[in-house]
Amino acid sequence: MSQAAxxxxxHTRLALAGFGAAVFVAAAIxxxxxxxxxxxxxxxxxxxxxxxxxxxxxxxxxxxxMIALAGWLAWRRVGFTVPLWLWTAQLVLNAIWTxxxxxxxxxxxxxxxxxxxxxxxxxxxxxxxxxxxxxxVLLLPYWAWVTYASALNLxxxxxxx
Length: 161
Fold this sequence. Notes:
The protein is mainly alpha-helical.
């Protein structure tokens, strides 16, 4: 076992809290970007398959918990190496999307962000699979949701320009 993979219990628990805090910050940035935007979302032309705005909060809550756990599991195995840099990069793009889409109404720029986010999630899944398969599996629902959200973003952009 590598030196990076050896962590004491208190250190590991603190790291889990750190991963939770990082994801909480990303979620909070997104939350600030959507505060009071339910009417805006409902006022957009949307495809028939668009979910009601009430669906997003519960889905993202579960996904953010899974994202934090995935990062923590991979970190426990390899420390803060390339897989964790990918995890961090995707989390940053995740945080940026909501202010772009809702706060700025930049649907095209938000789509560019989410397309790169989708690629980074895929790269993170591949990297995590190499170091800790359960960490990769935890990211699959997130990747699926971002696939759906990407299609929704593109459709809303096309319908509202």
